[in-house]
Design brief:
Layout (H helix, E strand, L loop, with lengths): L4 E3 L6 E3 L12 H41 L8
Antiparallel strand pairs: 1-2
Bound molecules: zinc ion.
Amino acid sequence: MAIYHKDCPQCAAAVATYVRRCACGFSFRDTEQAEAQDLEAIAEEELLYQEYLAARARQASMTTAESRSTPTNVPMA
Ligand SMILES: [Zn+2]
């Protein structure tokens, strides 16, 4: 059985990581809060990355627009 366990700080019993409340009544709320903060940090990083990509896309489209506005092989007639 490859189930991850965590130790209950109150009764020292090994409980599965997905268990939110130990049989002794201890709640793993603090641990969950820490995990939620991690997720928040990851979401923030992804947001920054998306903004970076959007900036890169804007830059690329600006470069494309520039090369379009200065055509080299368009006949003047
Ligand atoms: Zn316990």
